[in-house]
Amino acid sequence: MKKYEVRFDGGESRSTYNGEIIGVDYMLVEVPSLEDEDENIELYAELPADDEKNYNELKAEILRQAKEHGYTEENFTFWYD
Questions:
Q1: Which domain holds residue 62?
Q2: For 28-37, what is each residue's pLDDT tens digit?
Q3: Which of 2, 8, 49, 72 has CB atoms 3.0–4.6 Å from 23's, for a disulfide?
Q4: CA atoms within 13 A on the CB side of 18
């Protein structure tokens, strides 16, 4: 079974919070669509920056999105795990 490495990093938000772009922690991974092998799916989650507090919440959101596309936790390698 192929494992996909989930990137845990920080940077600027992709969206605005109260009208401004802020620093965020995020997780990002790209996986092939199980329905169309020529298509990739981006799983992405972000929260305002707070590394220790955000890791588990971001991981849970990535796994929720992954489940919607037919993937399980066993398909991923997470940075702190």
A1: 4-32+40-77
A2: 999 999 999 8
A3: 49
A4: 2
